[in-house]
Every structure is written in structure tokens, then in C-alpha cells.
Amino acid sequence: MTTTGAIDALTVAKATVPGAGAPKTDARVVRRRLGPGRRIRFAFWVGPILLLAVWAIGSKVGVINPAVLTAPWDVAQAFQDQWVNHDLGGDIAASLERAGLGLAFGVVGGTLLAVTSGLSRIGESLIDGPIQIKRSVPTLALIPLFVAWFGIGQEMKIVTIALISMIPVYVNTHNGLRSIDGKYAELAETIGIGRGEFIRHVVLPGALPGFLLGMRFAVTSALLGLVVVEQYNATSGIGHMMTLAEEYGETDVLVVGLVLYGVFGFLADTAVRLTERRALSWRRTIEG
């Protein structure tokens, strides 16, 4: 069999890698069993909009005490005040830079470690054990040690976010690599293709769902780390703004910060989900 024919055979096999889902007709049957109804476009916006409506109605009728949770229109006014009279734009840019750099380092590191560990028994013996030990130690508990190593500047914050976001990428990508059925390796040996082609055309595509799932967790973890590290001697950023607001008892500004964190997390998760939908368009799942 020629190399081209081998790759074509593996392309067919790739579409049936575990986790790729059922055929389209089976998915339709499952959807009918779950209940009638057409697919809602942009359905992931429904929940946040409903939550905002409940918040606004509760504040309007007095169910939600303003001393406990500021009304959304007051939060919007506080946002405008922070934007016009303070450096909210600079704070947002500083926070996004920290989160973006930390997430990028974490994703690259987690992916490289997962691929090395998942495709090599020697790599797994050297890497997987320390990673599992790290999983049992909360990264936030290591912040005092990072402060001693890197100081309380930007480096400590980026390293903390990178470590927090690296773990879910590693775990899910590694699991995706290890969960591919061994029969595809036997097929590769039978049709006589090389290890490199097998990895490119079957192994890595088969691990892509796990990687993207890890990305969704990594985005959330990066924002969680951002919230914490910005409490450490930050002179800019959303966390710095919230720290000042807490000192002066400005509840509305605190809610502005919380809303910004939530919006960033939601938009980042949405971006990963849309990427997943495009990258895994060859899958046939219950989502259709």
C-alpha cells in the first residue's frame, strides 16, 4: 500500500477515534429521545441574559438589597465613572496582559509535557508523577514561595497563572492521547506507515477534544489565579481597583470588578467553544 493510501485509510480511522461521537442518524435519534425542539442559535447567551434580567428585576422591586448587591444601572454608572475619571482602561489592559501571558505559557507548557508524556513511556515515567504531585498541592498555596523566589512584581503573577492553567491542559490532553484505541496502532503497522504520520493523522487529532476541554478549564483557572495574584502589591489591574474600592467601601466598584472578571471568563470560554465546534466539525455528537 502506498503512503497516500495509508494516510487515506488512517483518515477514515481518525473519524472513528473514541470520543468522536456517533453517526449523524444516531445523534438525531438520541435528540428525539431527549425531547423535541429545534436547536437554538447562540443558546449560550440565554443563561447570562436571564441572569441579568433576574438581577435587574430583583433590584427594581426591592427583593435585592442595594447594600448587599448594587443594582445593575448603578454598576453601569460606576463603570462609566471609573472609565472617565479613573484609569479603568489601563487596569483592564494590565489584567488582560497578566492573564494572557500566564495562560499562553501554561498552555504551551502543559501541551508539550502532555505530548512528551503521552507518546513516550520514558517521558511518562519522568513527567506524569511530578505533575500528579503538583495537582495535589494547590498553586495558590505556593504563592508565598513564589514571592520569595520572584518577588511581588509581574513575574510572580505570571508564573502563578501559568502553573494554574498548565495542569488542566496537561491532564486532559494526556488523557486524550492515552485513550486512543490500540487497534489504530495495529492498523498503522498493518498498512506500513511511519510513526510520524500516525501521530499527525490519528493521535493528535484524536487528542484534540481533550486539549480543547483542558483549554476551557485553563481559561477559568487563569482568571481565578488573576483574581488572587492581583491582591499582592498590584499597582494596576482590576484587582487593584477592587482593593481600593474595598478600602473606601465602594460596593458598586467592587461589583464592576466582579462583572468584568465574569465577562472576560464568559467571552474566553465562548471563544474556545466556537473554536472547538469548528475544529471538531468532523465529529457527530448529540449536539449535532
From TrEMBL:
Write out the GO cellular component annotations. plasma membrane
What family does the database annotate? Belongs to the binding-protein-dependent transport system permease family.
Q: Any idea where this protein resides?
A: Cell membrane
| Pfam families xrefs | BPD_transp_1
* UniProt name for this protein: ABC transporter permease
The record's Gene Ontology biological-process terms are: transmembrane transport
Family matches, as SUPFAM superfamilies: MetI-like (SSF161098)
> What is the membrane topology listed in the Swiss-Prot or TrEMBL record?
Multi-pass membrane protein
Q: What Gene3D superfamilies is this protein classified in?
A: MetI-like
Superkingdom assignment: Bacteria
> What InterPro entries does its record include?
MetI-like (IPR000515), MetI-like_sf (IPR035906)
All copies of domain ABC transmembrane type-1, residue ranges: 92-272
- Predominant place of localization: membrane
Transmembrane region positions?
40-58, 101-123, 135-152, 158-177, 198-219, 253-274
UniProt entry keywords in alphabetical sequence:
Cell membrane, Membrane, Transmembrane, Transmembrane helix, Transport
